[in-house]
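Journal club side-thread
Mid-discussion, someone asked how the predicted structure for our own chain would compare to the paper's figures. Pasting it here so we can look after the session.
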Amino acid sequence: KMVQQVEICRAHWTDVYKEAKFFQRHRHYLEFDFMASSEAIFAAWSHWGRQKIQDVLRLFEQMSSNMVTLRPWPEWVAFKDSEWSHCSAVFVGLHLERGPSDASSEGPRRSFDLREPIVKFLEAISQWPEADKHANKFELLIKHVRLSELQTWLENKQRGLTAGAGSGAGTALQGLSSGSAGNSWHV
């Protein structure tokens, strides 16, 4: 899009290479927290997660592309957690399409049900071949976070604090944890 703007002389080439303002661009994000108790388990778990995260993007495109557009951030963001020694988050910006009634303050607000693609993603990722071998040693938490919550999360990360310190950030949508009775789902 930016290259097109350069071609019609509405932008400069330096604009193409500017740092992206991804973490300020969207009002809503999905946060996928991959956590593990050791570096080796985290490497295997996050490798599986990288493969499966592409599936969630396709699922959203197939199921709700007319309502929600996803904009993934390509880098995983390492963070500190009070329970897990190895953690990284994947952020996906959500562009929520507004209906005609959303343009004005009158009428009901449009709601977006993200459960179906999230549950399908969890079903796929829970097939991790090493899950039983690493019971109680890995976790995935998926949260919806608003821009203000994400900014607090990023500030805490920058200060070296645990990810959720003082923010209570996000609304947990779904999660996958490795319990002694196998994989369990929690909301």
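Post-session note: The helical segments are 2-7, 13-16, 22-25, 39-64, 115-125, 147-158.
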